[in-house]
Amino acid sequence: MPLPPSGKTPWPPVQFTEPFADIDVWRAWYTGDTGHLAQVYGGPGTYGQDPRAREFFELNRPSQFRGGLVGGLARMFWGEPVTPGQPAAKLHVPIAADIAELSANLLWADIPTVSVDGDSTDKTAHAATTDQIKRYLDDRGHATLREGSETASALTGAYVRVVWDKALRPRPWLDILEPDAVVPEWKWNILSAATVWRELEPLNGGGEVWRLLERHEPGSIEYGLYKGKADTLGMMMALSDHPEAEYLVGRVDDQGRQDTGISRLLVSYVPNVGPSRMWSHLPDAKPFGRSDFAGIEPLMGSLDEAWTSWMRDLRLGKARIMLPQSMLETDGPGSGGMFDLDREVFVQLNMLDEGAGAASLAMNQFDIRVEEHERTCTALRRQILSSAGYSAQSFGDEGTVAVTATEVAARKEESLTTRGLKILYQRPALLEILTTMLWVDVTHCGAKGVDPTVELTASWPQAVQPDPEATARTLSLLETAGAISTWMKVKTLHPDWDDDEVKAEVARIRQDKQSANPLPAGDPFNTGGGQAPDSEEDDTDSADAQDDSLEEQGDAVAA
To answer: Do the strands 113-116 and 456-459 form a parallel or antiparallel pair, or are they unpaired?
Structure first.
């Protein structure tokens, strides 16, 4: 399918009007822009210039456009108009941004281990491939994927585009795209093509909208420059007609295509988590995934309302003094009156009785409902986190009391379960992205000794590291019982090590034991080296010989 033709083509396409509008609402919560929040709950949000978006809101959320009680409730706290004569005093608690940040930190605080899957005779190529992948992740790849994970938590998912420019970097790198910056095409819920688009700066202060479209297909990228209106693409122009697109003229052929030389997409989609509950009826939006904010928007609005009420109590709780007019001092008619609050001695006035307290000061100070507001905010915060799939303890609600790793895992069980669920979506996307980077590196950046055809595997480190003291006690008990080998002890202590690193450490341990227990020269076990035999190695050889004997007996019985 080529780029859209010139004319009044709606943009974004009509099938994405609803999901893109919802994504804009979640973006407002994620950024914490109070003006944006008031806009999306009082109207169609950022896409307010798009009449199709407003039509969707009017048809599907008509109460947002009504007045009175129904309209006020539908628009929620942030859609309520400001009372005339009063300043805009609404406050926002950035709990949505905290949730997205926590999600990304749980997934990408540490670099996952990526290696070549399976054995191969070409171990040199496998080692070179593994080393190159580590360079990708170390070269801001890890940080970029973490940023994409935070975006995905808030906006249902994120696109990851592999780019390269040898004038800037010797290796390819990653670029994160928000879900409403790409128009996808799916086959069996798998991304088959993607059109990346962005708006360019207007020329000569004109009212037209310039857009650059970048359509990705396996093996090629097609570019198109359009000049249209806010809701339509308009006419396709030459790439040289806009200064921000001129750099593409030398890259494309006469059809506006660039051959990538790679028979795979350079764009991958990483969903946050599935399924998409809101868009299950939309085939083109169903693979997007689900935002962590979906369904908890009213709770986040209530939290902002409770916090704003608390701060309002602080403002209204200021002490105010009321005094009769006769106690004011004046410099004459028309000069106004004043009262010196720092004056200590006053002369009582001789005046007719005008009622009790007529010539006395009165102070008024409202109560500040601290406990009520604090309990309300705490309850709302806990419910928001639980509905998003996270434990309140992940945000430090338990303080800084030292606990064991087992207790930490138990308290954060909900967060760790959500982390494990999201890894199910992150792992295949990560392997797909890294494989594409390998192909780009070999094809365009001249990488040597790297094999992009290999199958990769990835494993995430433990979110809660075990207690070193508890691990040491466990290994000591197993060693005393004779139920663990040196190799397994090293592997348990260093689960992130590969087999070669474990073998090297085992060899060093055995060498240290032999050096610490030399045998006398006359000992029959001393063959000249003056060192004690490795009893564990002898035990292993004996066990292997016993296994061989049992296998031979089994063969004889079978015969």
So the answer is: antiparallel
Residues 428, 433, 439: CA angle, nearest 5 degrees: 130
* 8 Å CB contact between 185 and 194: yes
Instruction: Count other Cβ atoms within 10 Å, centred on residue 381.
Output: 21
Do residues 266 and 194 lie in contact, with contact meaning Cβ atoms separated by under 8 Å? no
> From the centroid of its chain, how far is CA 207?
36
DSSP one-letter code for 173: E
Query: If you search the block for the tokens 């409202």, which residue do you land on?
Result: 366
Q: What is the mean pLDDT of residues 30-43?
A: 84
Let me know how many helices (H) and strands (E) the chain has, helices first.
15, 16
What pairing do the DSSP bridges indicate for beta strands 209-217 and 190-200?
A: antiparallel
Specify the DSSP element, H or E, that contains 258.
Answer: strand 257-259
The residues, ordered by sequence, that sit 6+ positions from 469 with a Cβ below 8 Å of its Cβ are: none
Tokens encoding 164: 């390269």
d(CA 351, CA 34): 55
Straight-line distance from the first to the last Cα atom of the chain, in angstroms, rounded to the nearest whole number = 66
Query: Could you tell me how far CA 122 lies from the centroid of its own chain?
Result: 37
For residues 310 and 326, the answer to whether their CB atoms sit within 8 Å is no
Does the pLDDT of residue 263 top 90, yes or no?
yes
**What percent of the chain clears pLDDT 90, i.e. is strictly above it?**
47
For 380-396, write each residue's pLDDT tens digit: 999 999 999 998 877 76
Q: Which residues contact 436 (CB under 8 A, 6 or more apart)?
A: 162, 262, 264, 265, 266, 268
Neighbouring C-beta atoms of residue 467, cutoff 10 Å: 16
Q: For 65-82, what is the mean pLDDT?
A: 53
Of 443, 437, 428, 457, nearest in space to 265 by CA:
437
pLDDT of 353 reads 53
Give the list of residues 6+ apart from residue 423 with CB closer than 8 angstroms, or none: 107, 460
| Residue 19: other Cβ atoms inside 10 A | 21
Residue 52 tokens read as 């199709």
Cα separations (Å) of 20 from 26, 35, 75, 104, 466?
10, 19, 19, 22, 43
Q: How far is CA 445 from CA 56, 139, 168, 364, 480, in A?
A: 47, 15, 11, 75, 55
Q: Does residue 267 sit in helix, strand or coil?
A: strand
Cα 450 to Cα 84, 344, 445, distances in angstroms: 68, 87, 12
Question: Which residues lie across from 337 on neighbouring strands?
Answer: 330
Dist. CA 180–CA 177, nearest whole Å: 8
Highest mean pLDDT among 37-46, 218-227, 346-355, 525-534: 218-227
Q: How far apart are CA 455 and CA 497, in angstroms?
A: 20
534: number of Cβ within 10 Å = 15
Nearest to 142, CA basis, from 433, 379, 371:
433
Closest CA to 307 of 32, 17, 23, 20: 32
Distance CA 503, CA 487 (A): 7
